[in-house]
Amino acid sequence: YGLLPILHERMKGDQRDEPTACLWYKKDTASLTAIDDIAVSYTRKDEQSLRKENYEKLPTNLEELGLAPAYLWIRRVKRTSIPNTTKDVTRMKTELKDCTSML
After folding, report:
1. Are 73 and 56 in contact (CB under 8 A)?
2. How far is CA 39 from the centre of its chain?
3. Which residues contact residue 2 at a Cβ distance below 8 angstroms, ignoring those fewer than 6 apart?
4. DSSP three-state, residue 8
5. pLDDT confidence tier of residue 50, bands split at 50, 70 and 90
6. How far apart are the first and last CA of the chain?
7. CA 54 to CA 49: how far, in whole Å?
8. Cα torsion angle, 29, 25, 79, 91, sign
């Protein structure tokens, strides 16, 4: 299916009866947008603030998954606004190799 997990240390349950939260994603390079940030809302005030910051609310309440009563929100950005660091890394590797050879 091409899905990959995102699991943070602080999202793991400490006890057997505590849930572990894991987000699964699939990179779609054909999409015009990418996820820029993920946030959680616990109150209406949180929701109002996130809406003002252009976040989209996901429909499932986390309480349905055995977690706290809260919602996940995502903020998308245009993929063209994300810098392409691949060229920078390639250039840096080349420069490092050249410098190493001079030593």
Report:
1. yes
2. 9
3. 26, 27
4. coil
5. very high
6. 47
7. 9
8. negative
Q: And the tokens for 89?
A: 């890394």
| pLDDT tens profile 22-42 | 778 788 878 888 888 889 999
Per-chain mean pLDDT for the chain = 81
Phi, psi of 13 (to 5 degrees): -70, 145
Distance CA(32)–CA(35), nearest Å, equals 11
* Residue in the structure block whose two tokens are 């840096």: 92
- CB–CB of 70/41 below 8 Å? yes
8, pLDDT greater than 80: no
| Residue 88 amino acid letter | D
